[in-house]
Amino acid sequence: MLRARTYQPAPHVEVIEVGGVLDLNSAPQFADIVRDQMATPCRTLVLDLSGLTFLSTHGVVSLLEAGHRALMGEVQLVLVSGNRIVDRLLEMLDVADRFTYADSVSDAVAARRELPRLAAPT
Asked: Strand order of the sheet with strand 13-22?
């Protein structure tokens, strides 16, 4: 079972704190939560994965999709892991380098950067 909590520790920063299992059954729920948070005026989205007890390849696909959505929406995506289950699978699948990491949510908030805005079409 996936547990998720969202909160805003700073202006334009959203955090999704997840725990439990991120697998085939819970990946759609996780993807919905990520989409909902990216629909807010956030500039930085922090995914706190430190509470996960299991991560499947379906969960990794959801993380990759979140990374793609963030890139397309000019949102800085930061993973907080420190979780051997998460880190090991991302390394095994050779996708760990596709993400930005922080040791904690507070580190992610402190290190956030302003992303350039695209010029509005004329």
From this structure: 2-10, 13-22, 44-55, 76-80, 100-102
Q: What is the mean pLDDT of each run of 10 residues along the chain (122 residues)?
A: 95 95 97 93 94 97 96 93 93 96 92 51 44
Using a 10 angstrom Cβ sphere, with 0-12 exposed, 13-18 middle and 19 or more buried, the burial of residue 82 is: middle
Query: For the whole model, what pTM was predicted?
Result: 0.88
* CB-based contact 112:22 (threshold 8 Å): no
Q: Are 33 and 63 in contact (CB under 8 A)?
A: no
